[in-house]
Task: inverse folding
């Protein structure tokens, strides 16, 4: 359900929106971007001024220049019924930060050591697999030589 | 037509939820210093202004498969909160949703399952309930002040097929008699549609009669088979 905002005519007071229903998604840029540029996916109804005010007021981020474009979502793929399936269109905003700030997209999924809790099922399974693998390995004193060779 | 908007946020800078140990989903209970609780100092929290870092979780939670989160806000809990608190909570939920959406998109990009995706639905539900509570309050205020039940004016109108529906008015810059597209709309039922309306009514009544008779038949059959059984509530 889209909200109907009052119509603007010359002389009307500035429209103020309480509780905006717009969500921004920070995305990793596909192509290499300058260090001060942040890439967002924004709803289609937002404009450059909206994004600027949004970031400045809600996130307190100094915004320099903004450029937007609309990405067409493909309508080429077909499903098992041979019907065309439309990927939704979305608007992309390239925001350049003011005051010489830079931003690099962080690595949010670093490799982490998976440690199971004591006495759990997964831990016992892990131990069992480890023991099995240990049995398959040859005597380390043979120095990698296979069992085919006598002695 | 651009909507030049200046977001009306008041007193947001003066408060933010305490660190990130308590996510916005847990029902926080904070009291004003002048309540009748045993002596406690007024709680002062520092506002967290991390700029673009607010689009990402705490670094400890990066790479986890599950992140703990509380229950969504219920309408009952939200009705106890003041308007200022609801306003602030809206922005807290908004930022949380932005965070989760960035996480979802990055997970899709890296082809990795997102940690606890149910958080997005929880936040959505909380926001919807907040909206309903705010609308309730606004509607009550409007009723008291002006006597209008609905914020958006409308009227009962007929369409070409004889249906009577609530037509909600739209705001235009010109009057209706200068609006060519609006004049092409017809809000009346022509005479030749009357037989169709009668047939439709007959069909509806026939379906309703069939439904009631079916229920009666099943009940009588059950009574025949199980004479001592209780009559079911349905």
Result:
């Amino acid at each position: 359900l889209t909200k109907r905002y009052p119509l603007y005519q010359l002389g009307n007071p500035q429209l103020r929106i309480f509780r905006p229903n717009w969500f921004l998604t920070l995305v990793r840029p596909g192509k290499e971007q300058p260090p001060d540029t942040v890439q967002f996916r924004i709803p289609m109804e937002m404009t450059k001024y909206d994004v600027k005010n949004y970031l400045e007021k809600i996130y307190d981020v100094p915004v320099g220049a903004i450029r937007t474009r609309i990405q067409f979502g493909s309508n080429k793929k077909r499903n098992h019924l041979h019907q065309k399936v439309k990927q939704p269109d979305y608007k992309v905003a390239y925001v350049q930060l003011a005051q010489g700030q830079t931003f690099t997209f962080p690595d949010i999924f670093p490799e982490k050591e998976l440690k199971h809790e004591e006495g759990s099922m997964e831990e016992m399974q892990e131990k069992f697999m480890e023991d099995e693998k240990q049995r398959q390995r040859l005597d380390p004193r043979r120095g990698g030589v296979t069992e085919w060779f006598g002695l | 037509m651009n909507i030049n908007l200046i977001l009306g946020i008041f007193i947001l800078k003066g408060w933010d939820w305490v660190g990130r140990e308590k996510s916005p989903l847990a029902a926080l209970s904070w009291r004003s210093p002048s309540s009748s609780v045993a002596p406690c100092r007024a709680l002062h929290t520092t506002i967290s202004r991390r700029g673009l870092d607010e689009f990402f979780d705490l670094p400890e939670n990066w790479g986890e498969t599950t992140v703990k989160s509380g229950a969504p806000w219920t309408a009952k809990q939200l009705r106890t909160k003041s308007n200022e608190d609801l306003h602030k909570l809206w922005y807290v939920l908004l930022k949380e949703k932005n965070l989760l959406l960035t996480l979802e998109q990055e997970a899709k990009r890296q082809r990795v399952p997102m940690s606890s995706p149910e958080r997005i639905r929880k936040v959505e539900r909380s926001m919807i309930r907040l909206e309903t509570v705010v609308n309730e309050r606004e509607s009550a205020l409007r009723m008291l002040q002006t006597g209008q039940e609905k914020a958006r004016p409308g009227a009962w109108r007929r369409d070409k097929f004889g249906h009577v529906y609530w037509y909600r008015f739209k705001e235009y810059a010109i009057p209706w008699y200068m609006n060519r597209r609006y004049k092409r709309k017809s809000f009346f039922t022509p005479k030749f549609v009357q037989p169709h309306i009668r047939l439709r009514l007959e069909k509806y009544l026939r379906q309703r009669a069939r439904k009631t008779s079916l229920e009666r038949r099943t009940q009588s059959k059950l009574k025949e088979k199980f004479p001592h059984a209780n009559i079911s509530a349905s």
Observations:
- Chain B touches chain A through 46 residues (CB under 8 Å).
- The first strand of chain B starts at residue 6 and ends at 7.
- DSSP finds five helices and three strands in chain B.
- Helices of chain B lie at 75-79, 83-110, 118-146, 180-184, 194-225.
